[in-house]
Amino acid sequence: MIGKLSAVEISTWYWLALGVVLVLGEIFMPGGILVWIGVGAAVVGIVSVFVKLTLIVKLVIWMVVAGILLVLWFKLLRDNDSSREGRAEATLGYTGTLVRVVAPGMNSSVRFNRPILGEEVWDCESSVRIDANTKVKVVAAVGREGRRLRVMPA
Predict the structure, then answer these.
(1) What residues form the membrane-spanning segments (predicted)?
(2) Which residues are CB-contacts of 105 (< 8 A; sequence separation ≥ 6)?
(3) Distance between CA 94 and CA 119 in Å, rounded?
(4) Which of 151, 127, 128 is nearest to 141 (CA)?
(5) Is 2's pLDDT higher than 50?
(6) In the chain, how many H helices and how many E strands?
(7) How many CB atoms lie within 10 A of CB 11?
(8) Where are the beta strands (DSSP E) in 37-94?
């Protein structure tokens, strides 16, 4: 086995090292992107141990593997911040300012003085008519999977 490893091209070790550096870089820049790009590089390094590949083929494998992993990450695995799915409960009890008029069956937005879970403006609804620029209090998380807030005048 050691004889086989010593015969491996130096570029294979570069790919493996790049994979490790990118995965470890995720510690300093969290977000779930570097880890998948690093895994793609590591896959190229592992494949290169067994099959001699040109640089172009290695780059294509890296892009394809990293691309597939990133798509899977953003579509299936990641807690999608833009949907705020299941996180609206964190806003309960907060007060904000209504961006535009809201009434039953009509959606609006509420702006908080400071971001809550990274967002300053959240979608909302109300069971009563409330004029724009009115101070409102969040009383519930509603809508499909709790993505919208129910507000009442503060």
Answers:
(1) 12-28, 59-77
(2) none
(3) 13
(4) 151
(5) no
(6) 4, 5
(7) 14
(8) none
Pair 123, 107: CB distance under 8 Å: yes
Burial 44-77, CB ≥16 within 10 A → b, else e: bbebbbeeebeeeebeebbeebbeebbeeeeeee
What is the tens place of the pLDDT at every residue in 13-53?
888 888 889 888 888 877 778 889 999 999 999 999 898 88
Tokens of 76: 């299936």
Q: 């294509």: which residue's tokens?
A: 60
Query: At 3, is the pLDDT very low, low, confident or very high (cuts 50, 70, 90)?
Result: very low
What would the two tokens of residue 63 be? 């892009």
Q: What residue ranges define each of the domains in the chain, with the CATH number in brackets? A: 2-77 (no CATH), 88-153 (2.40.50.140)
Q: Cα(118)–Cα(144) distance, rounded to whole angstroms? A: 20
Cross-strand partners of 5:
none
Residue whose token pair is 């996180």: 87
In total, the chain counts a number of residues equal to 154
AA identity, residue 76: L
